[in-house]
Design brief:
154 residues; alpha/beta; Ribose 5-phosphate Isomerase B, Chain: A; five-stranded parallel sheet; 43% helix; intramolecular oxidoreductase activity, interconverting aldoses and ketoses; RpiB; RpiB_LacA_LacB
């Protein structure tokens, strides 16, 4: 089943963006490029938020965010309510974040993972469904912003 992906990067993730777009389209999915349009210096929070809001406005869509390490851009995206942006480094993390966390944005670092790993992560992220079940309650807690422990933490 074809899916829609939004992609955004900062300057440190720009070089691999064309490769990622090719992978997504080769897998039969649609990809919308939200920028930037060059490798000139930009601030990753701006592009993380742009992608996060696009994903939220388009139910059933997904995002891909790339910066140098994937850390800053994933933190920024996760500030947006309803986003579950997962920093992944390999097949296993990309698969489990879809199965267990119902992640809607895949994040990674251009300086951290190679092209073969990127291709594998995108393929498994796109083709793995959320398991629900015991994981659904945990995802609901994430969405509510509540851990259930409250003041009991001391």
């Amino acid at each position: 089943m074809s899916k829609k992906f939004y992609i955004a990067t900062d300057h440190a993730g720009y070089a691999v963006k064309a490769y990622v777009k090719e992978i997504v389209t080769d897998l039969g999915h649609e990809i919308i490029d939200l920028g930037p349009d060059s490798a000139d210096r930009v601030d990753y929070p701006d592009y993380a938020h742009k992608c996060a809001h696009a994903v939220l406005a388009d139910p059933g869509s997904f995002g891909i965010l790339i910066c140098g390490t994937g850390i800053g851009i994933s933190i920024s995206a996760n500030k947006i309510q309803g986003i579950r942006a997962a920093l992944c480094h390999d097949h296993y993390t990309a698969k489990l974040t879809r199965q267990h966390n119902d992640a809607n944005i895949l994040c990674f670092g251009e300086r951290v993972v190679g092209k073969g790993v990127i291709e594998d992560m995108i393929e498994v992220f796109a083709n793995t469904e959320f398991e629900g079940g015991r994981h659904a309650g945990r995802v609901a807690k994430i969405e509510e912003g509540m851990c259930g422990l409250g003041a009991d933490l001391g």
